[in-house]
Amino acid sequence: PRDDSSALRSLDIYGEKPGGLELCGIFTVYSQEAYDSLSEAQIAEVLEMNTQPYGLGVVAKQLREVYSEVLKRSLSLPEEERLVMYDPHDTNVEICKKVGPYTVRLDARRAGKPKAAPAPKVIVCTPLDPTKFNFTKIKNADERLLRTTLAGQPYDFLTNKFPLCTCHSLLVSQDLVPQQMAPKHLMAIKELLGGSSFYAYFNSWGAAASVNHFHMHVIDERTPLFEFALERAENDVAGMPCFRMAGHPASHFVLPWESVDAAWGLIEGMQKDNVPHNIAFSATHVYIFPRDDS
Questions:
Q1: How does pLDDT run across 30-62, given as a tens digit for each residue?
Q2: What is the pLDDT of residue 2?
Q3: For residue range 188-239, what is the model confidence (pLDDT) as tens digits?
Q4: For residue range 58-76, what is the model confidence (pLDDT) as tens digits?
Q5: Three-class SS of the chain
Q6: HSE-up of 257 (CA within 13 Å, CB side)?
Q7: Separation of alpha carbons 125 and 269, rounded Å
Q8: What's the whole-model pTM score?
Q9: Which residues are paired to 288 by β-bridges?
């Protein structure tokens, strides 16, 4: 919200609170003196003081601010009371090196993370079982960083107790739906990432997901994946140009958000064919990795 000094300054320059007509570019004054003196710079100042950024990146900005406060508060508490156990990039602890284009980190702090059981071969589109754990059953309501709506759908952001990256949190559907990508979730992540420095990744059931309730990992950090140069792939996807990361050894597809329908067609095909998959997202592209399910 604009502070009182800005409001008074705006009134002092123009004499009235600007409305829709002023935003359309027409300013009406009621004296010759004001008519002669109102300059382009003053008009620009009035417009700037009476509007605010909104839309692209707004939810991401809110998430960053809330997460920073939660991390700061957590680090002041005994470990047993922390929502976030540590800052993943604490320079006093983190040890990392570059191995080619990749980053290898040594972080003994994650040794305290509960170990997941080996994943059995599963059906990618396994229905959600309401008797098992889902994110509506979290015991501490403070784990919920933010409740929001993205692309018209309700989501929560939850803390990640053992973060891997800056602002590492979980985007979780408030609806009880399984760990399956869908067009509505694609539109939600597109809205979240647009105009922000955030990235996201999704693990399907059978590809490292441990809870069968829709969730994605959200981070405020550019990881090595997004440093790879893109080159045109040999084959298109659904008639749309497809790309790949030059020199990246994994089987993958890269599609720009403008081709999100083609990306969804590819993801839907993997669901139907029971191919586990991982998906990474930037503000500009969708990176799809079909997994070997053996």
A1: 899 989 999 999 999 988 888 865 555 789 999
A2: 42
A3: 999 999 989 999 999 999 999 999 999 999 999 999 999 999 999 999 999 9
A4: 899 999 999 999 999 999 9
A5: CCCHHHHHHHHHHHCCCCCHHHHCCCCCCCCHHHHHHCCHHHHHHHHHHCCCCCCCCHHHHHHHHHHHHHHHHHHCCCHHHCCCCCCCCCCCCCEEEEECCEEEEECHHHHHCCCCCCCCCCCCCCCCCCCCCCHHHCCCHHHEEEEEEECCEEEEEEECCCCCCCCCEEEEECCCCCCCCCHHHHHHHHHHHCCCCCEEEEECCCCCCCCCCCEEEEECCCCHHHHCCEEECCCCECCECCEEECCCCCCCEEEEHHHHHHHHHHHHHHHHCCCCEEEEECCCEEEEEECCCC
A6: 15
A7: 12
A8: 0.81
A9: 253, 279
